[in-house]
TrEMBL record:
GO cellular component terms listed in the entry, alphabetical order: plasma membrane
Family from the record: Belongs to the prokaryotic riboflavin transporter (P-RFT) (TC 2.A.87) family.
Entry keyword set: Cell membrane, Membrane, Transmembrane, Transmembrane helix, Transport
Record function comment: Probably a riboflavin-binding protein that interacts with the energy-coupling factor (ECF) ABC-transporter complex.
Transmembrane parts of this sequence: 6-25, 45-63, 83-100, 112-132, 152-177
Molecular-function GO terms, alphabetical: riboflavin transmembrane transporter activity
The keyword Coiled coil is annotated on this UniProt entry: no
Name of this protein: Riboflavin transporter
InterPro entries, alphabetized: ECF_trnsprt_substrate-spec, RibU
Localization (cell): Cell membrane
Pfam families named among the record's database cross-references: ECF_trnsprt (PF12822)
Membrane-topology annotation of the record: Multi-pass membrane protein
Length: 193
């Protein structure tokens, strides 16, 4: 397990708190089902990953979802939605982090965010079909969706929603990144020193 400095642990804790607050400021997008909510809580996790490495980004995602589960609970009694949010965040930040490490420029970050968005949208569609939708129906004691019903929901709702969410997060992050790039690079230098 990677050891973090005190500064890194404090920073991860602060970024997790910011991420949790951003998670509370969620909102629906009209054309999509009401249970699909947009929030920008993956942005602090991405910042943590860029500065302290991918484990830090994953920790921010984990702490954010753990805090939210204990503070707000879950409709199912178990954290199915929180697990889905965690996995979606990790699927967004990891490809973004690794591609940006290979192409450190604004263009590289743009390409990395596109890859992160595509990764999140496509893999979450597969995971929703095989894991999360069946878990919701199981824990809510609802009748299981048929294969065609689940595919229709994923193709018409979940897949496009995740693309839109990824695009919105990418636009917001790029607006921040153009101003924060020098600071992030300086923090990476201090971390490696």
């Amino acid at each position: 397990m990677k050891k973090f400095s005190v500064k890194a642990m404090v920073s991860i804790g602060m970024l997790s708190s910011i991420s949790y607050v951003l998670m509370l400021l969620n909102f629906p997008l009209p054309p999509f089902p009401k249970f699909l909510m947009v929030d920008f809580s993956d942005i602090p996790a991405l910042i943590a990953a860029l500065i302290f490495g991918p484990v830090a980004g994953i920790l921010v995602e984990f702490l954010k979802n753990t805090l939210d589960y204990f503070m707000t609970g879950s409709d199912t009694g178990v954290p199915v939605g929180h697990a889905a949010n965690f996995v979606a965040g990790v699927l967004f930040i990891l490809p973004t982090y690794y591609i940006y490490q290979r192409m450190k420029s604004n263009r590289g970050m743009t390409f990395a965010l596109v890859a992160g968005t595509a990764s999140m949208a496509i893999l979450m569609s597969v995971l929703n079909y095989y894991v999360f939708l069946p878990a919701y129906t199981l824990f809510l004691n609802m009748p299981a969706m048929s294969g065609p019903e689940a595919r229709a929901m994923i193709v018409a709702g979940i897949l496009p929603f995740n693309f839109v969410k990824g695009i919105l997060m990418s636009v917001i992050f790029m607006l921040m990144f153009t101003r924060m790039k020098t600071w992030i690079e300086r923090q990476q230098t201090f971390k490696s020193a």
